[in-house]
Amino acid sequence: MSDNPMPSRPAAVDAEGRKTAARKSTAPGRKATANKNAATSKRTTTAKTTATSKNAATAKTTATSKKTTANKNAATSKRTTTAKTTEAPARRPRRRPRFSVERGLFPPLGAKGRIALVVSLLTGLLTHGYHLFRYPLYLTDEGIYMQRAWSLVRETSLSPYTYDYDHAPLGWITLAGWVFPLPKQFETFGNAINTGRFLMLLVHIASVYLLFEIARRLSGSVLAATVTSFLFNVSPIAVYFQRQVLLDNLMMLWLLLSLFMLLRREVTIRSVFGGGVALGIALITKENAIFFVPSFMYLLYRRVKGSASSRFTSTLWPFAAATPIGGYVTYALLKNELLPSGFDFDLNNPPADHVSLLYTLWWQLNRNQGTLFSHTGLLQSSWLVRDKFLLIAGVCAMAICLWIGMRDRRRNLGFLIAGTLALGYAFYLVRGSVVLDFYVTPLIPMFALNLGMVTDRLLKGSFANRFMRGAHSVTRVAVPSFVAILLLASPASGYLVHTNTEGHTQIADQYQSKINLTGMQHAQIAWVRKHVPPNSRIIMDDDLWGELHDVRPFYPYAHSHWNASSDPDVRDKLFKKRWQNVDYIILSNKMRKSMMLNNADGRENWILQALRNSDRVWSVTEGNIKLEIYRVQ
Fold it and tell me: Which of 81, 197, 341, 342 is the most exposed place for a label (fewest CB within 10 A)?
Protein backbone atom coordinates (compact mmCIF):
# COMPACT_ATOMS: atom_id res chain seq x y z
CA MET A 1 0.00 0.00 0.00
CA SER A 2 1.23 3.47 -0.80
CA ASP A 3 1.70 5.98 1.97
CA ASN A 4 0.10 8.81 -0.07
CA PRO A 5 -3.68 9.11 0.29
CA MET A 6 -5.76 8.52 -2.85
CA PRO A 7 -7.71 11.45 -4.17
CA SER A 8 -11.39 11.18 -3.29
CA ARG A 9 -13.89 10.52 -6.15
CA PRO A 10 -17.12 12.43 -6.49
CA ALA A 11 -19.95 10.46 -4.95
CA ALA A 12 -23.00 11.94 -6.63
CA VAL A 13 -24.10 14.19 -9.41
CA ASP A 14 -26.83 16.75 -8.84
CA ALA A 15 -29.81 17.38 -11.10
CA GLU A 16 -27.99 19.99 -13.20
CA GLY A 17 -25.03 17.62 -13.93
CA ARG A 18 -22.43 19.42 -11.75
CA LYS A 19 -20.04 17.43 -9.52
CA THR A 20 -20.83 19.11 -6.22
CA ALA A 21 -21.39 16.23 -3.82
CA ALA A 22 -17.67 15.31 -3.53
CA ARG A 23 -16.60 18.90 -3.04
CA LYS A 24 -19.17 19.44 -0.34
CA SER A 25 -18.04 16.33 1.52
CA THR A 26 -14.36 17.34 1.62
CA ALA A 27 -14.48 21.12 1.68
CA PRO A 28 -14.97 21.65 5.47
CA GLY A 29 -11.82 19.73 6.47
CA ARG A 30 -9.56 20.18 3.46
CA LYS A 31 -6.58 21.67 5.35
CA ALA A 32 -6.86 19.29 8.32
CA THR A 33 -6.92 16.28 6.05
CA ALA A 34 -3.73 17.38 4.30
CA ASN A 35 -1.83 17.67 7.64
CA LYS A 36 -2.85 14.30 9.03
CA ASN A 37 -0.48 11.38 9.47
CA ALA A 38 0.22 9.49 6.26
CA ALA A 39 -0.24 6.28 8.20
CA THR A 40 -4.00 6.63 7.86
CA SER A 41 -4.97 3.60 5.92
CA LYS A 42 -6.43 3.69 2.46
CA ARG A 43 -9.38 1.60 3.63
CA THR A 44 -10.27 4.11 6.36
CA THR A 45 -10.06 7.01 3.95
CA THR A 46 -12.12 5.16 1.40
CA ALA A 47 -14.72 4.18 4.01
CA LYS A 48 -15.00 7.75 5.32
CA THR A 49 -15.19 9.16 1.86
CA THR A 50 -17.85 6.62 0.91
CA ALA A 51 -19.90 7.37 4.04
CA THR A 52 -19.60 11.09 3.49
CA SER A 53 -20.49 10.71 -0.14
CA LYS A 54 -23.58 8.68 0.73
CA ASN A 55 -24.73 11.31 3.21
CA ALA A 56 -24.21 14.08 0.68
CA ALA A 57 -25.89 12.10 -2.06
CA THR A 58 -28.90 11.41 0.16
CA ALA A 59 -29.26 15.08 1.05
CA LYS A 60 -28.87 16.14 -2.53
CA THR A 61 -31.28 13.50 -3.79
CA THR A 62 -33.92 14.76 -1.34
CA ALA A 63 -33.41 18.31 -2.60
CA THR A 64 -33.53 17.08 -6.16
CA SER A 65 -36.75 15.18 -5.41
CA LYS A 66 -38.42 18.30 -4.06
CA LYS A 67 -37.19 20.33 -6.99
CA THR A 68 -38.48 17.70 -9.44
CA THR A 69 -41.92 17.76 -7.81
CA ALA A 70 -42.07 21.56 -7.97
CA ASN A 71 -40.73 21.81 -11.51
CA LYS A 72 -41.72 18.95 -13.78
CA ASN A 73 -39.56 20.21 -16.62
CA ALA A 74 -36.27 19.68 -14.69
CA ALA A 75 -34.10 16.90 -16.06
CA THR A 76 -32.62 14.03 -14.01
CA SER A 77 -29.26 12.52 -14.89
CA LYS A 78 -29.02 9.48 -12.63
CA ARG A 79 -31.24 6.41 -12.55
CA THR A 80 -31.05 6.26 -8.75
CA THR A 81 -32.14 9.85 -8.36
CA THR A 82 -35.01 9.31 -10.81
CA ALA A 83 -36.21 6.23 -8.96
CA LYS A 84 -36.22 8.02 -5.60
CA THR A 85 -38.01 10.96 -7.11
CA THR A 86 -40.70 8.63 -8.47
CA GLU A 87 -41.24 7.11 -5.06
CA ALA A 88 -42.12 10.53 -3.58
CA PRO A 89 -45.87 10.89 -2.96
CA ALA A 90 -47.54 12.87 -5.80
CA ARG A 91 -50.21 15.49 -5.10
CA ARG A 92 -53.67 14.14 -5.94
CA PRO A 93 -55.29 16.11 -8.78
CA ARG A 94 -58.43 18.06 -7.92
CA ARG A 95 -61.57 16.22 -9.05
CA ARG A 96 -63.51 17.98 -11.76
CA PRO A 97 -67.26 18.29 -11.15
CA ARG A 98 -69.30 15.66 -12.95
CA PHE A 99 -72.02 18.16 -13.89
CA SER A 100 -71.86 21.88 -14.66
CA VAL A 101 -74.11 23.80 -17.03
CA GLU A 102 -71.72 26.74 -17.06
CA ARG A 103 -68.69 24.63 -18.04
CA GLY A 104 -70.57 22.30 -20.37
CA LEU A 105 -70.03 19.19 -18.23
CA PHE A 106 -73.07 17.04 -18.95
CA PRO A 107 -73.38 13.39 -17.92
CA PRO A 108 -73.43 10.99 -20.89
CA LEU A 109 -76.81 9.86 -22.13
CA GLY A 110 -76.10 6.18 -21.54
CA ALA A 111 -78.17 3.14 -22.43
CA LYS A 112 -81.03 3.98 -20.04
CA GLY A 113 -81.13 7.51 -21.37
CA ARG A 114 -81.40 6.29 -24.95
CA ILE A 115 -84.28 4.00 -24.01
CA ALA A 116 -86.05 6.88 -22.22
CA LEU A 117 -85.55 9.14 -25.25
CA VAL A 118 -86.95 6.57 -27.68
CA VAL A 119 -89.96 5.94 -25.42
CA SER A 120 -90.58 9.70 -25.21
CA LEU A 121 -90.48 10.08 -28.99
CA LEU A 122 -92.85 7.16 -29.52
CA THR A 123 -95.21 8.50 -26.86
CA GLY A 124 -95.33 11.87 -28.60
CA LEU A 125 -95.97 10.20 -31.95
CA LEU A 126 -98.90 8.27 -30.46
CA THR A 127 -100.54 11.00 -28.39
CA HIS A 128 -100.31 13.69 -31.07
CA GLY A 129 -100.69 11.49 -34.13
CA TYR A 130 -103.76 9.48 -33.16
CA HIS A 131 -107.03 11.18 -34.11
CA LEU A 132 -105.01 14.02 -35.64
CA PHE A 133 -107.35 14.85 -38.53
CA ARG A 134 -110.57 14.57 -36.49
CA TYR A 135 -109.82 16.44 -33.29
CA PRO A 136 -109.88 19.33 -32.55
CA LEU A 137 -112.17 21.41 -34.75
CA TYR A 138 -110.44 23.38 -37.50
CA LEU A 139 -109.51 26.78 -36.11
CA THR A 140 -109.82 30.18 -37.79
CA ASP A 141 -106.09 30.87 -37.45
CA GLU A 142 -105.25 27.51 -39.01
CA GLY A 143 -107.19 28.59 -42.07
CA ILE A 144 -105.44 31.99 -42.15
CA TYR A 145 -101.92 30.52 -42.11
CA MET A 146 -102.72 27.88 -44.72
CA GLN A 147 -104.47 30.55 -46.81
CA ARG A 148 -101.28 32.62 -46.83
CA ALA A 149 -99.15 29.57 -47.60
CA TRP A 150 -101.52 28.94 -50.53
CA SER A 151 -100.92 32.49 -51.73
CA LEU A 152 -97.15 31.94 -51.67
CA VAL A 153 -97.37 28.71 -53.67
CA ARG A 154 -100.07 29.78 -56.12
CA GLU A 155 -99.55 33.56 -56.40
CA THR A 156 -96.01 34.16 -55.01
CA SER A 157 -97.28 36.77 -52.56
CA LEU A 158 -97.41 36.82 -48.77
CA SER A 159 -101.20 37.00 -48.67
CA PRO A 160 -104.14 36.80 -51.07
CA TYR A 161 -105.28 40.06 -49.46
CA THR A 162 -103.37 43.16 -48.39
CA TYR A 163 -100.53 42.03 -46.12
CA ASP A 164 -100.71 44.37 -43.14
CA TYR A 165 -97.75 42.99 -41.11
CA ASP A 166 -100.03 41.59 -38.43
CA HIS A 167 -97.49 38.72 -38.07
CA ALA A 168 -93.99 38.16 -39.36
CA PRO A 169 -94.22 35.88 -42.42
CA LEU A 170 -91.71 33.09 -41.80
CA GLY A 171 -94.35 30.79 -40.29
CA TRP A 172 -96.41 30.45 -43.44
CA ILE A 173 -93.27 30.58 -45.57
CA THR A 174 -92.31 27.39 -43.71
CA LEU A 175 -95.76 25.93 -44.41
CA ALA A 176 -95.40 26.79 -48.10
CA GLY A 177 -91.97 25.17 -48.18
CA TRP A 178 -93.49 22.02 -46.67
CA VAL A 179 -96.44 21.89 -49.07
CA PHE A 180 -94.68 22.75 -52.31
CA PRO A 181 -92.73 19.46 -52.88
CA LEU A 182 -95.62 17.18 -51.80
CA PRO A 183 -97.26 15.16 -54.60
CA LYS A 184 -100.74 16.71 -54.18
CA GLN A 185 -99.53 19.79 -52.34
CA PHE A 186 -102.38 21.16 -50.18
CA GLU A 187 -104.57 18.08 -50.68
CA THR A 188 -101.88 15.51 -49.86
CA PHE A 189 -103.52 14.63 -46.53
CA GLY A 190 -107.10 15.40 -47.53
CA ASN A 191 -107.21 19.19 -47.34
CA ALA A 192 -104.98 22.18 -46.62
CA ILE A 193 -105.34 22.19 -42.83
CA ASN A 194 -104.78 18.43 -42.54
CA THR A 195 -101.59 18.82 -44.57
CA GLY A 196 -100.46 21.52 -42.18
CA ARG A 197 -101.37 19.40 -39.16
CA PHE A 198 -99.14 16.57 -40.33
CA LEU A 199 -96.26 19.04 -40.35
CA MET A 200 -97.21 19.99 -36.77
CA LEU A 201 -96.84 16.32 -35.82
CA LEU A 202 -93.29 16.30 -37.20
CA VAL A 203 -92.58 19.58 -35.43
CA HIS A 204 -93.77 18.08 -32.15
CA ILE A 205 -91.53 15.02 -32.48
CA ALA A 206 -88.52 17.24 -33.16
CA SER A 207 -89.49 19.44 -30.21
CA VAL A 208 -89.69 16.38 -27.92
CA TYR A 209 -86.11 15.46 -28.77
CA LEU A 210 -84.84 19.00 -28.21
CA LEU A 211 -86.78 19.43 -24.97
CA PHE A 212 -85.54 16.06 -23.65
CA GLU A 213 -81.92 17.03 -24.26
CA ILE A 214 -82.40 20.54 -22.88
CA ALA A 215 -83.95 19.17 -19.67
CA ARG A 216 -81.17 16.60 -19.31
CA ARG A 217 -78.43 19.20 -19.78
CA LEU A 218 -79.99 21.78 -17.49
CA SER A 219 -80.57 19.23 -14.71
CA GLY A 220 -77.95 16.55 -15.36
CA SER A 221 -80.68 13.92 -14.97
CA VAL A 222 -82.39 11.55 -17.37
CA LEU A 223 -85.32 11.34 -14.95
CA ALA A 224 -85.95 15.09 -15.21
CA ALA A 225 -85.86 14.83 -19.01
CA THR A 226 -88.27 11.87 -18.99
CA VAL A 227 -90.80 13.62 -16.74
CA THR A 228 -90.56 16.76 -18.87
CA SER A 229 -91.21 14.85 -22.10
CA PHE A 230 -94.06 12.89 -20.54
CA LEU A 231 -95.96 16.03 -19.56
CA PHE A 232 -95.19 17.68 -22.89
CA ASN A 233 -96.60 14.64 -24.70
CA VAL A 234 -99.74 13.72 -22.75
CA SER A 235 -101.02 17.00 -21.32
CA PRO A 236 -104.54 17.58 -22.73
CA ILE A 237 -103.89 21.28 -23.29
CA ALA A 238 -100.67 20.37 -25.12
CA VAL A 239 -102.42 17.85 -27.35
CA TYR A 240 -105.22 20.31 -28.10
CA PHE A 241 -103.05 23.22 -29.22
CA GLN A 242 -99.95 21.47 -30.54
CA ARG A 243 -101.96 19.51 -33.11
CA GLN A 244 -103.19 22.75 -34.65
CA VAL A 245 -101.42 24.68 -37.40
CA LEU A 246 -100.18 27.54 -35.24
CA LEU A 247 -97.22 29.89 -35.53
CA ASP A 248 -96.60 29.30 -31.82
CA ASN A 249 -95.64 25.67 -32.45
CA LEU A 250 -93.18 26.61 -35.18
CA MET A 251 -91.77 29.39 -33.02
CA MET A 252 -91.14 26.98 -30.13
CA LEU A 253 -89.27 24.58 -32.39
CA TRP A 254 -86.79 27.32 -33.33
CA LEU A 255 -86.52 28.54 -29.73
CA LEU A 256 -85.75 25.05 -28.46
CA LEU A 257 -83.17 24.61 -31.21
CA SER A 258 -81.52 27.90 -30.23
CA LEU A 259 -81.43 26.86 -26.56
CA PHE A 260 -80.05 23.45 -27.51
CA MET A 261 -77.21 25.09 -29.47
CA LEU A 262 -76.26 27.17 -26.41
CA LEU A 263 -76.14 24.00 -24.31
CA ARG A 264 -73.52 22.21 -26.40
CA ARG A 265 -70.54 20.81 -24.51
CA GLU A 266 -68.24 23.38 -26.08
CA VAL A 267 -69.30 26.91 -26.97
CA THR A 268 -67.93 27.14 -30.50
CA ILE A 269 -68.39 29.77 -33.17
CA ARG A 270 -70.66 27.38 -35.03
CA SER A 271 -72.94 26.75 -32.06
CA VAL A 272 -73.15 30.44 -31.13
CA PHE A 273 -73.91 31.49 -34.71
CA GLY A 274 -76.43 28.68 -35.18
CA GLY A 275 -78.16 29.51 -31.90
CA GLY A 276 -78.39 33.17 -32.84
CA VAL A 277 -79.82 32.46 -36.29
CA ALA A 278 -82.39 30.04 -34.80
CA LEU A 279 -83.49 32.73 -32.35
CA GLY A 280 -83.80 35.26 -35.17
CA ILE A 281 -85.95 32.81 -37.16
CA ALA A 282 -88.16 32.31 -34.09
CA LEU A 283 -88.62 36.09 -33.80
CA ILE A 284 -89.79 36.47 -37.39
CA THR A 285 -92.03 33.43 -37.02
CA LYS A 286 -93.87 35.08 -34.13
CA GLU A 287 -92.77 38.24 -32.38
CA ASN A 288 -93.61 37.17 -28.81
CA ALA A 289 -90.46 35.02 -28.84
CA ILE A 290 -88.76 38.19 -27.61
CA PHE A 291 -89.89 37.41 -24.05
CA PHE A 292 -87.46 34.45 -23.98
CA VAL A 293 -84.46 36.53 -25.07
CA PRO A 294 -83.29 37.72 -21.60
CA SER A 295 -82.85 34.12 -20.40
CA PHE A 296 -80.93 33.23 -23.56
CA MET A 297 -78.63 36.22 -23.13
CA TYR A 298 -77.86 35.34 -19.52
CA LEU A 299 -77.13 31.71 -20.41
CA LEU A 300 -74.74 32.80 -23.16
CA TYR A 301 -73.01 35.20 -20.76
CA ARG A 302 -72.44 32.45 -18.21
CA ARG A 303 -71.23 29.97 -20.82
CA VAL A 304 -68.59 32.28 -22.37
CA LYS A 305 -67.62 34.20 -19.23
CA GLY A 306 -63.85 34.13 -18.72
CA SER A 307 -63.09 32.46 -22.05
CA ALA A 308 -60.59 33.93 -24.50
CA SER A 309 -63.30 34.38 -27.14
CA SER A 310 -65.99 35.79 -24.84
CA ARG A 311 -66.04 39.22 -26.48
CA PHE A 312 -66.25 37.79 -29.98
CA THR A 313 -68.96 35.22 -29.21
CA SER A 314 -71.06 37.68 -27.22
CA THR A 315 -71.02 39.96 -30.26
CA LEU A 316 -71.55 37.22 -32.84
CA TRP A 317 -74.72 35.88 -31.20
CA PRO A 318 -76.85 39.07 -31.42
CA PHE A 319 -75.49 39.72 -34.91
CA ALA A 320 -76.66 36.26 -36.03
CA ALA A 321 -80.06 36.80 -34.38
CA ALA A 322 -80.46 40.17 -36.08
CA THR A 323 -79.76 38.80 -39.54
CA PRO A 324 -83.23 37.24 -40.20
CA ILE A 325 -84.90 40.26 -38.59
CA GLY A 326 -82.90 42.55 -40.87
CA GLY A 327 -84.22 40.69 -43.89
CA TYR A 328 -87.82 41.25 -42.73
CA VAL A 329 -87.23 44.96 -42.11
CA THR A 330 -85.50 45.31 -45.48
CA TYR A 331 -88.54 43.78 -47.22
CA ALA A 332 -90.80 46.40 -45.65
CA LEU A 333 -88.32 49.17 -46.46
CA LEU A 334 -88.08 48.20 -50.14
CA LYS A 335 -91.87 48.25 -50.42
CA ASN A 336 -92.01 51.65 -48.70
CA GLU A 337 -94.05 50.07 -45.90
CA LEU A 338 -91.67 50.48 -42.97
CA LEU A 339 -92.97 53.85 -41.73
CA PRO A 340 -96.49 55.30 -41.85
CA SER A 341 -97.18 58.31 -44.02
CA GLY A 342 -95.96 61.53 -42.45
CA PHE A 343 -94.49 59.52 -39.57
CA ASP A 344 -97.97 59.60 -38.03
CA PHE A 345 -98.56 56.95 -35.31
CA ASP A 346 -102.02 58.19 -34.30
CA LEU A 347 -103.95 55.04 -33.40
CA ASN A 348 -107.29 56.78 -33.95
CA ASN A 349 -106.42 57.55 -37.57
CA PRO A 350 -104.71 54.59 -39.28
CA PRO A 351 -102.68 55.38 -42.42
CA ALA A 352 -104.95 55.21 -45.44
CA ASP A 353 -102.50 55.19 -48.34
CA HIS A 354 -100.39 52.15 -47.36
CA VAL A 355 -99.76 49.73 -44.52
CA SER A 356 -96.77 50.11 -42.21
CA LEU A 357 -94.67 47.59 -40.28
CA LEU A 358 -93.79 49.98 -37.44
CA TYR A 359 -97.34 51.32 -37.19
CA THR A 360 -98.72 47.79 -36.86
CA LEU A 361 -96.18 46.97 -34.14
CA TRP A 362 -97.14 50.16 -32.30
CA TRP A 363 -100.83 49.26 -32.59
CA GLN A 364 -100.22 45.77 -31.23
CA LEU A 365 -98.24 47.12 -28.27
CA ASN A 366 -101.12 49.40 -27.32
CA ARG A 367 -103.90 46.84 -27.52
CA ASN A 368 -105.42 45.87 -24.18
CA GLN A 369 -108.22 43.80 -22.76
CA GLY A 370 -109.59 42.56 -19.45
CA THR A 371 -107.62 40.46 -17.04
CA LEU A 372 -107.07 36.75 -17.52
CA PHE A 373 -108.20 36.10 -13.95
CA SER A 374 -111.82 37.19 -14.36
CA HIS A 375 -114.64 34.64 -14.43
CA THR A 376 -114.92 35.01 -18.20
CA GLY A 377 -111.17 35.17 -18.80
CA LEU A 378 -109.28 32.53 -20.76
CA LEU A 379 -107.63 31.15 -17.63
CA GLN A 380 -110.89 29.80 -16.23
CA SER A 381 -112.93 29.41 -19.39
CA SER A 382 -110.33 27.68 -21.56
CA TRP A 383 -106.98 26.83 -19.98
CA LEU A 384 -107.78 25.40 -16.54
CA VAL A 385 -110.66 23.44 -18.02
CA ARG A 386 -108.21 21.55 -20.22
CA ASP A 387 -105.36 20.93 -17.76
CA LYS A 388 -105.44 22.17 -14.17
CA PHE A 389 -102.51 20.02 -13.08
CA LEU A 390 -99.94 21.30 -15.56
CA LEU A 391 -100.84 24.96 -15.08
CA ILE A 392 -101.14 25.02 -11.29
CA ALA A 393 -98.23 22.66 -10.60
CA GLY A 394 -96.22 24.44 -13.29
CA VAL A 395 -96.55 27.80 -11.52
CA CYS A 396 -95.42 26.22 -8.24
CA ALA A 397 -92.48 24.49 -9.96
CA MET A 398 -91.48 27.76 -11.62
CA ALA A 399 -91.36 29.48 -8.22
CA ILE A 400 -89.26 26.62 -6.77
CA CYS A 401 -86.82 26.73 -9.70
CA LEU A 402 -86.39 30.48 -9.30
CA TRP A 403 -85.79 30.08 -5.56
CA ILE A 404 -83.22 27.30 -6.03
CA GLY A 405 -81.50 29.17 -8.83
CA MET A 406 -81.27 32.46 -6.96
CA ARG A 407 -79.90 30.82 -3.82
CA ASP A 408 -76.82 29.56 -5.65
CA ARG A 409 -76.56 30.94 -9.16
CA ARG A 410 -73.17 29.32 -9.72
CA ARG A 411 -74.20 25.72 -9.01
CA ASN A 412 -77.89 25.90 -9.97
CA LEU A 413 -77.69 27.74 -13.28
CA GLY A 414 -80.02 25.19 -14.91
CA PHE A 415 -82.82 25.89 -12.41
CA LEU A 416 -82.40 29.63 -12.87
CA ILE A 417 -82.65 29.36 -16.66
CA ALA A 418 -85.71 27.09 -16.52
CA GLY A 419 -87.47 29.38 -14.05
CA THR A 420 -86.78 32.59 -15.95
CA LEU A 421 -87.89 31.06 -19.27
CA ALA A 422 -91.31 30.29 -17.79
CA LEU A 423 -91.48 33.59 -15.90
CA GLY A 424 -90.70 35.69 -18.98
CA TYR A 425 -93.51 34.22 -21.05
CA ALA A 426 -95.96 34.17 -18.11
CA PHE A 427 -95.36 37.89 -17.80
CA TYR A 428 -96.31 38.28 -21.47
CA LEU A 429 -99.65 36.54 -20.86
CA VAL A 430 -100.66 38.49 -17.75
CA ARG A 431 -99.43 41.94 -18.80
CA GLY A 432 -102.93 43.00 -19.91
CA SER A 433 -102.73 43.02 -23.70
CA VAL A 434 -104.97 41.07 -26.07
CA VAL A 435 -104.49 37.32 -25.54
CA LEU A 436 -106.06 34.53 -27.56
CA ASP A 437 -106.57 31.04 -26.15
CA PHE A 438 -103.73 29.41 -28.12
CA TYR A 439 -101.21 31.99 -26.85
CA VAL A 440 -100.64 29.66 -23.89
CA THR A 441 -98.96 27.10 -26.17
CA PRO A 442 -95.29 28.22 -25.64
CA LEU A 443 -95.79 28.11 -21.86
CA ILE A 444 -96.57 24.37 -21.92
CA PRO A 445 -93.00 23.09 -22.58
CA MET A 446 -91.61 25.64 -20.10
CA PHE A 447 -93.91 24.44 -17.30
CA ALA A 448 -93.13 20.82 -18.20
CA LEU A 449 -89.40 21.63 -17.97
CA ASN A 450 -89.77 23.19 -14.52
CA LEU A 451 -91.87 20.29 -13.27
CA GLY A 452 -89.36 17.73 -14.51
CA MET A 453 -86.43 19.45 -12.81
CA VAL A 454 -88.26 19.99 -9.52
CA THR A 455 -89.44 16.37 -9.46
CA ASP A 456 -85.88 15.15 -9.88
CA ARG A 457 -84.56 17.49 -7.17
CA LEU A 458 -87.25 16.43 -4.68
CA LEU A 459 -86.49 12.76 -5.25
CA LYS A 460 -82.77 13.36 -4.85
CA GLY A 461 -83.48 15.10 -1.55
CA SER A 462 -85.51 12.17 -0.32
CA PHE A 463 -82.61 9.78 -1.02
CA ALA A 464 -80.55 11.53 1.65
CA ASN A 465 -82.90 10.14 4.29
CA ARG A 466 -81.32 7.07 5.87
CA PHE A 467 -84.60 5.16 5.63
CA MET A 468 -84.67 5.69 1.87
CA ARG A 469 -81.09 4.86 0.98
CA GLY A 470 -81.71 1.16 0.65
CA ALA A 471 -84.59 1.55 -1.82
CA HIS A 472 -83.71 4.82 -3.53
CA SER A 473 -83.13 3.30 -6.97
CA VAL A 474 -86.61 1.77 -6.95
CA THR A 475 -88.19 4.88 -5.45
CA ARG A 476 -86.75 7.15 -8.10
CA VAL A 477 -88.62 5.23 -10.78
CA ALA A 478 -91.68 4.26 -8.73
CA VAL A 479 -92.73 7.73 -7.58
CA PRO A 480 -92.87 9.38 -11.04
CA SER A 481 -94.49 6.25 -12.45
CA PHE A 482 -97.20 6.34 -9.79
CA VAL A 483 -97.92 10.02 -10.48
CA ALA A 484 -98.05 9.32 -14.23
CA ILE A 485 -100.51 6.45 -13.75
CA LEU A 486 -102.61 8.62 -11.46
CA LEU A 487 -102.77 11.40 -14.04
CA LEU A 488 -103.63 9.01 -16.86
CA ALA A 489 -106.25 7.06 -14.93
CA SER A 490 -107.98 9.85 -13.02
CA PRO A 491 -111.06 11.30 -14.77
CA ALA A 492 -110.45 14.60 -12.96
CA SER A 493 -107.22 15.19 -14.87
CA GLY A 494 -108.63 14.48 -18.33
CA TYR A 495 -105.30 13.06 -19.46
CA LEU A 496 -106.64 9.74 -20.72
CA VAL A 497 -110.23 9.52 -19.45
CA HIS A 498 -112.76 12.12 -18.35
CA THR A 499 -116.32 12.45 -17.13
CA ASN A 500 -118.78 13.46 -19.84
CA THR A 501 -121.83 15.70 -19.49
CA GLU A 502 -123.96 12.70 -18.53
CA GLY A 503 -121.68 11.77 -15.65
CA HIS A 504 -120.15 8.70 -17.32
CA THR A 505 -116.42 8.03 -17.48
CA GLN A 506 -115.09 7.64 -21.02
CA ILE A 507 -111.95 8.09 -23.07
CA ALA A 508 -110.86 11.71 -23.38
CA ASP A 509 -111.95 13.59 -26.49
CA GLN A 510 -108.46 13.73 -27.97
CA TYR A 511 -108.45 9.90 -28.17
CA GLN A 512 -112.19 9.23 -28.59
CA SER A 513 -112.60 7.51 -31.96
CA LYS A 514 -116.34 8.20 -32.04
CA ILE A 515 -115.77 11.95 -31.96
CA ASN A 516 -115.19 13.44 -35.40
CA LEU A 517 -115.37 17.19 -34.98
CA THR A 518 -113.76 18.06 -38.30
CA GLY A 519 -116.27 15.76 -40.00
CA MET A 520 -118.90 18.39 -39.23
CA GLN A 521 -116.91 20.91 -41.27
CA HIS A 522 -116.50 18.42 -44.11
CA ALA A 523 -120.28 17.99 -44.15
CA GLN A 524 -120.69 21.77 -44.28
CA ILE A 525 -118.39 22.00 -47.30
CA ALA A 526 -120.18 19.10 -48.99
CA TRP A 527 -123.53 20.91 -48.70
CA VAL A 528 -122.02 24.08 -50.16
CA ARG A 529 -120.61 22.22 -53.17
CA LYS A 530 -123.94 20.57 -53.80
CA HIS A 531 -126.29 23.54 -53.38
CA VAL A 532 -124.32 26.80 -53.74
CA PRO A 533 -123.24 28.05 -57.22
CA PRO A 534 -119.47 28.74 -57.56
CA ASN A 535 -120.08 32.40 -58.51
CA SER A 536 -121.96 33.14 -55.28
CA ARG A 537 -120.73 35.94 -53.02
CA ILE A 538 -120.07 34.25 -49.67
CA ILE A 539 -119.19 35.51 -46.19
CA MET A 540 -117.53 32.77 -44.11
CA ASP A 541 -114.68 32.02 -41.72
CA ASP A 542 -111.06 31.37 -42.70
CA ASP A 543 -111.10 27.67 -41.74
CA LEU A 544 -112.93 26.86 -45.00
CA TRP A 545 -110.91 29.17 -47.25
CA GLY A 546 -108.51 26.54 -48.58
CA GLU A 547 -111.31 24.09 -49.43
CA LEU A 548 -113.24 26.67 -51.44
CA HIS A 549 -110.26 28.20 -53.26
CA ASP A 550 -107.98 25.24 -54.00
CA VAL A 551 -110.40 22.41 -54.80
CA ARG A 552 -112.62 22.43 -57.87
CA PRO A 553 -115.14 23.90 -58.31
CA PHE A 554 -113.50 27.08 -57.06
CA TYR A 555 -115.43 29.75 -55.18
CA PRO A 556 -113.47 32.95 -55.97
CA TYR A 557 -115.96 35.23 -54.22
CA ALA A 558 -115.89 33.41 -50.88
CA HIS A 559 -114.20 35.62 -48.26
CA SER A 560 -113.90 35.70 -44.51
CA HIS A 561 -115.84 38.27 -42.53
CA TRP A 562 -112.49 39.70 -41.33
CA ASN A 563 -111.37 40.61 -44.85
CA ALA A 564 -114.87 41.53 -46.02
CA SER A 565 -115.03 44.19 -43.30
CA SER A 566 -111.44 45.52 -43.43
CA ASP A 567 -109.82 44.96 -46.85
CA PRO A 568 -110.84 47.79 -49.23
CA ASP A 569 -110.62 45.57 -52.32
CA VAL A 570 -113.17 43.14 -50.88
CA ARG A 571 -115.30 45.52 -48.83
CA ASP A 572 -115.62 48.39 -51.30
CA LYS A 573 -115.23 46.73 -54.71
CA LEU A 574 -116.95 43.35 -54.33
CA PHE A 575 -119.60 43.88 -51.63
CA LYS A 576 -119.70 47.71 -51.65
CA LYS A 577 -120.62 47.50 -47.93
CA ARG A 578 -124.22 46.56 -48.83
CA TRP A 579 -125.88 43.53 -47.28
CA GLN A 580 -127.90 43.01 -50.48
CA ASN A 581 -124.67 41.99 -52.26
CA VAL A 582 -124.22 38.95 -49.99
CA ASP A 583 -125.66 35.62 -51.21
CA TYR A 584 -124.68 33.17 -48.43
CA ILE A 585 -123.25 33.34 -44.94
CA ILE A 586 -121.44 30.20 -43.72
CA LEU A 587 -121.13 30.35 -39.94
CA SER A 588 -118.36 28.45 -38.18
CA ASN A 589 -118.50 27.68 -34.48
CA LYS A 590 -118.59 30.98 -32.50
CA MET A 591 -118.28 33.04 -35.69
CA ARG A 592 -121.36 35.09 -34.74
CA LYS A 593 -119.63 36.05 -31.45
CA SER A 594 -116.44 36.96 -33.32
CA MET A 595 -118.36 39.29 -35.63
CA MET A 596 -119.89 41.05 -32.63
CA LEU A 597 -116.48 41.50 -30.99
CA ASN A 598 -114.96 42.77 -34.23
CA ASN A 599 -117.74 45.31 -34.66
CA ALA A 600 -116.65 47.80 -32.00
CA ASP A 601 -116.28 50.52 -34.66
CA GLY A 602 -119.29 49.34 -36.69
CA ARG A 603 -117.26 47.81 -39.50
CA GLU A 604 -119.38 44.64 -39.64
CA ASN A 605 -122.81 46.26 -39.37
CA TRP A 606 -123.67 45.47 -42.97
CA ILE A 607 -122.68 41.80 -42.55
CA LEU A 608 -124.78 41.47 -39.38
CA GLN A 609 -127.66 43.08 -41.20
CA ALA A 610 -127.31 40.52 -43.98
CA LEU A 611 -127.48 37.80 -41.33
CA ARG A 612 -130.71 39.27 -39.94
CA ASN A 613 -132.19 39.23 -43.44
CA SER A 614 -131.41 35.58 -44.20
CA ASP A 615 -132.87 32.12 -43.75
CA ARG A 616 -131.05 29.16 -42.23
CA VAL A 617 -130.79 26.37 -44.80
CA TRP A 618 -128.41 23.95 -43.03
CA SER A 619 -127.12 23.31 -39.52
CA VAL A 620 -125.46 20.62 -37.41
CA THR A 621 -124.86 20.49 -33.66
CA GLU A 622 -122.66 18.26 -31.53
CA GLY A 623 -122.20 19.14 -27.88
CA ASN A 624 -121.47 22.85 -27.67
CA ILE A 625 -120.36 23.04 -31.32
CA LYS A 626 -122.81 24.41 -33.85
CA LEU A 627 -122.29 25.03 -37.59
CA GLU A 628 -124.83 26.81 -39.82
CA ILE A 629 -125.43 28.06 -43.37
CA TYR A 630 -127.73 31.00 -44.16
CA ARG A 631 -129.13 32.15 -47.51
CA VAL A 632 -129.56 35.91 -47.70
CA GLN A 633 -132.99 37.00 -48.98
Answer: 342
